[in-house]
Request: fold
Amino acid sequence: MDLDEHVDPIEQMFFIRVAWSTKNFSIGLEEIEDAIAPLAKEFKASWKIRIAEEKLRTAIFVSKYDHCIQDILWRQKMGEFGIEIPLIISNHPDLEPLANQYGIPFYLFPITKGNKYEQEARELELLKEQQIDSIILARYMQILSPEFVKEYPNRIINIHHSFLPAFVGSKPYNQAYERGVKIIGATSHYVTADLDEGPIIEQGIIRISHKDSIKDLIRKGRDLERRVLAQAILNHSEHRILVQGQKTIIFE
Reply:
């Protein structure tokens, strides 16, 4: 149905993504991995088979900002993503009415400096109970601990309101305004133990001018954040991303 490949001459690595229909296969789905394994072993390949019909069970983490989660839930309702959303987790109660509107269970885990690790342990327990495969941080204003991130390697998607690696950390729009930049951006990336330094999935930019205030930057940036995060979720849900070190190969 579809085939795309990439050769990295520096790393001397070959990457390939193949999508096929099993409609007229002579073997069942449960036999496919056994059939491919000998060839993969011969080439010492890292490989994985995904069934397109099996949607990723995905949890959304939010705080108070609603623009990203509003967009995700709307797109999900329209059938754009290959995911299920069994639950929403937040450290604030503000967006529970939105979750109720879409009929998605909402779980509140207030986090302070004193209870952070205890609350993360409770969250992980819930995620495992719900068999969650991936996590979307839709402007979740908490830094996940390395112990938490380790449980979901390359399966936690974040949206950062800056064109990384510029303006990492908090208040990047303020930093951009103070520097007088002419372009602002948004970056979606996989979360690692290093803040805002995970493999980049998608980025977008928009021009600004000296007339724009910080509020203008934030308003324009929010449109970018929604679009960039949506594209990252789509690529992840369709298994179009291969991670190699700090980089990603995105098959179109």
In short: The chain has a mean pLDDT of 94. The chain is about 35% helix and 25% strand. The CA atoms of residues 30 and 49 lie 11 Å apart.
